[in-house]
Write a structure and sequence with these properties.
This protein is of the alpha/beta class and 484 residues long. The protein contains 15 helices and 23 strands. A hairpin with a 6-residue loop joins β4 (25-29) and β5 (36-41). α3 packs across α4 (102-109), α5 packs parallel to α6 (161-173) and α10 packs across α11 (301-313). The protein has helices at residues 45-61, 69-84, 87-98, 102-109, 111-126, 161-173, 190-199, 213-221, 234-245, 269-281, 301-313, 333-349, 381-384, 400-408, 423-432, and strands at residues 7-9, 11-14, 17-20, 25-29, 36-41, 130-134, 138-146, 149-153, 176-180, 206-208, 227-231, 250-254, 259-263, 291-297, 352-355, 371-374, 391-397, 412-413, 416-419, 439-440, 454-455, 458-459, 472-481. The structure holds nicotinamide-adenine-dinucleotide. Nicotinamide-adenine-dinucleotide binds next to α8 and α9.
């Protein structure tokens, strides 16, 4: 029997303090069998006003933003060290609410946010906030100041990672932050609140408001919020942008994706088949940057199909707490039904389902069998919409220019990959792909690289210094004539 999180959080974290609250309790269910694994206090509209007022007041008082950068850095580092001690508990908590495999949580989904926490804690103290601009006659002090009150809204698929990529750079910059995590996965992030409180974060600076879209809409529309940082669907991103436009609030949007992997005829197909599986199937395919469209030359389509068929057949679907499991459940019955509708569509669309195409009948949770579909038309729903499940589409092409055209024929522009033994050709094609990230032969991005999308995959970037500067405003102060 797996050890599940057993959380009963009756208070809300508002203004850096746990306070009694009256909003509805949110029941969080383990996607593996639909058991309740935790109850967390949800926010109600009055809590949004209280949290934003606390953030506004703390920012205007200036206690945190005027704290010397080295001290902000030291405090955020203390919080990081507190969470560093909790890796096994964080991983179990995450698997309980998200259903990702415990191995994935332990090796990636928890360590990666902890690394990012450490990075932003450090950057708070080393960043050059002031710069001198001198034209020979006059000089200006160009200084970077925190953007103000930040509203952060996050999805369910990275319950710690996405909040960290917003809360930490914003706090590092000196902002006050109100976070609204997804109601599906509000448990693990509570530990971030405890860690920041224990580290000594001043009153008012950070709040967490678990809740649904209505709470999110109220928060992003609040006149006292200076910047909104959102990760989630493109549909919600469009709504948020509109809500922010009236007051010209700053926005960072990390939205959907439908990333293409371009396989060239000279690619090392064994390596491709091995590396594309985690890139497409991580989190059971519930990742924004999942490489779910494989563009394959007709000349080697059969070979690619054989290798991927083999790789798909070897995937084990099952209990995410079990070490042998590759594919855990999807987040909810709604998501499972949505993916099922794509599988049904595939059957009627003329595409060929090579593996899977159905859901396991012997399991209680929200499982979908890993599914490989070939001869997918790039204009079909299968290739144009986010499926967010363990489904890979093969799309044949005749030549390089068609491959580039197909990769770019999408409203999204998040990620992509090129697979070839010819490094120069790979780079040339990577430059033609209209996405924020491209992986040559499945290589990982260097730490500190920007993460984000072109087109309707978003606005702005997260990670590294690119994910810090959006929490700063730039001010030029005319200092007077240059004294020689
Ligand atoms: P979602 O858009 O339904 O919800 C995301 C969050 O926004 C939730 O907290 C939700 O309650 C809230 N929300 C929904 N509508 C809102 C609105 N109009 N105003 C304010 N808040 C609102 O997305 P989801 O189903 O939770 O997550 C899956 C989506 O997230 C996918 O589209 C995926 O591609 C995307 N995503 C993108 C990235 C990225 O970095 N680009 C990373 C992870 C997930």
């Amino acid at each position: 029997m797996p050890v599940l999180a057993d959380v009963n959080q009756e208070n809300l974290f508002i203004g850096s303090r746990w306070l009694p609250a009256n909003g509805p309790m949110i029941e969080v269910r383990y996607p593996g069998d639909n058991r309740v694994v935790g109850r967390v206090r949800g926010a109600q509209p009055a809590d949004v006003d209280t949290a934003v007022a606390a953030a506004r007041a703390s920012f205007d008082r200036g206690e945190w933003r005027r704290t010397p950068a080295e001290e902000r850095s030291a405090l955020l580092l203390r919080a990081t060290e507190i969470l560093d001690q909790q890796l096994p508990e964080l991983a179990r908590s995450m698997t309980s609410e998200l259903g990702c495999t415990l191995a994935f949580a332990t090796q990636h989904h928890v360590p990666s946010p902890l690394r990012n926490m450490r990075f932003y804690a450090g950057l708070a103290g080393t960043y050059e906030y002031d710069e001198k601009v001198d034209d020979g006659t006059n000089w200006s002090l160009v200084t970077r100041e925190p953007v103000g009150v930040v509203a952060a809204v996050t999805p369910w698929n990275a319950p710690l990672g996405t909040p960290v990529l917003k809360v930490m750079p914003a706090l590092a910059a000196g902002c006050s932050v109100v976070l609204k995590p997804s109601p599906e996965t509000p448990i693990t992030v509570q530990r971030l609140a405890y860690a920041l409180q224990e580290a000594g974060l001043p009153e008012g600076v950070f709040s967490i408001l678990p809740g649904g879209a209505a709470i999110g809409q109220q928060l992003v529309s609040h006149p006292d919020v200076d910047k909104v940082t959102f990760t989630g669907s493109t549909a919600a991103g469009r709504d948020i942008m509109q809500r922010c436009s009236g007051r010209v609030a700053r926005v960072t949007l990390e939205l959907g994706g439908k990333s293409a992997a371009i396989v060239l005829p000279d690619a090392d197909l064994d390596m491709f088949a091995r590396k594309i599986m985690p890139m497409a199937m991580m989190l059971s395919g519930q990742a924004c940057n999942a490489q779910t469209r494989v563009l394959v030359p007709r000349s080697i389509q059969g070979e690619v199909e054989d290798r991927l068929t083999d790789a798909f057949r070897r995937l084990t679907v099952g209990d995410p707490f079990d070490e042998a499991t590759d594919i855990g459940p999807l987040i909810s019955s709604t998501q499972r039904d949505r993916v099922q509708s794509f599988l049904d569509f595939a059957t009627s669309s003329g595409a060929r389902t090579l593996v899977g195409g159905d859901v396991p009948t012997d399991r209680e949770g929200w499982f979908v069998n890993p599914t490989l579909i070939s001869d997918v038309d790039n204009t079909s729903r299968l290739a144009q919409e986010e499926i967010f499940g363990p489904v890979l589409s093969l799309i044949p092409f005749d030549d390089e220019s068609e491959a580039i055209h197909l990769a770019n024929a999408s409203i999204y522009g998040l990620s992509g990959s090129v697979w070839t033994e010819d490094a120069e050709r790979g780079l040339r094609i990577a430059r033609e792909i209209r996405t924020g990230m491209v992986h040559l032969n499945g290589h990982g991005l260097a730490k500190g690289s920007p993460f984000g999308g072109y087109k309707q995959s978003g606005i702005g970037r997260e990670m590294g210094v690119y994910g810090f500067e959006p929490y700063l405003e730039t001010k030029a102060i005319a200092m007077g004539p240059v004294v020689s």
